[in-house]
Amino acid sequence: DIPEEGKFTLPNEEELETLIKKVHEVMEEPENLKLLEYHISDIYTSSQVAASDYQNCAYIVSHIQELLRNSEFIKEKFGLATVENYGSSANTLWSMDSDIDIAVHFTQNESKNSKKKAKGNKKESKKKQNVVNEMKKIDYVKA
């Protein structure tokens, strides 16, 4: 049956079963299975990480680290830099826009740093306690 123009009717259960059987028959034909196998194999091959991807990533990470370590300003301000790659850097079929996720860690003079932290923690504790006290006053006034 040809539906009227602009109208579409859903198949009934019997028609749906027939359609599903036909799809299975078509999919199970040897040439279609070979074609499917070819496409799956092609996708798998295309999505593999090449050795050059790892080499490029290692070069970029080491170059960034070298630039940071050669900067006198950064050495004085933050200490020595260590750059770490922690993400996926492969250019695959699934993500054609390859990226590198890096973390940069700096070493600093521990004695200066620990003194600053101790002072900072005292100030932070006082600020937090003042906020808590203010909140208590507000709650008391509301009650």
UniProtKB/TrEMBL annotation:
Domain Poly(A) RNA polymerase mitochondrial-like central palm per the UniProt entry, residue ranges: 37-139
Pfam family of the protein (one): MTPAP-like_central
Comp. bias regions, Basic residues: 114-129
GO biological process, one term: RNA 3'-end processing
UniProt feature, compositional bias: Basic and acidic residues: 134-143
InterPro entries: MTPAP-like_central, NT_sf
Alphabetized Gene3D superfamilies for the sequence: Beta Polymerase, domain 2 (3.30.460.10)
Region (Disordered): 110-143
GO MF entries: RNA uridylyltransferase activity
PANTHER family to which the protein is assigned, alphabetical: POLY A POLYMERASE CID PAP -RELATED (PTHR12271), TERMINAL URIDYLYLTRANSFERASE TAILOR (PTHR12271:SF66)
Protein's recorded name: Poly(A) RNA polymerase mitochondrial-like central palm domain-containing protein
Organism listed in the record: Euplotes crassus
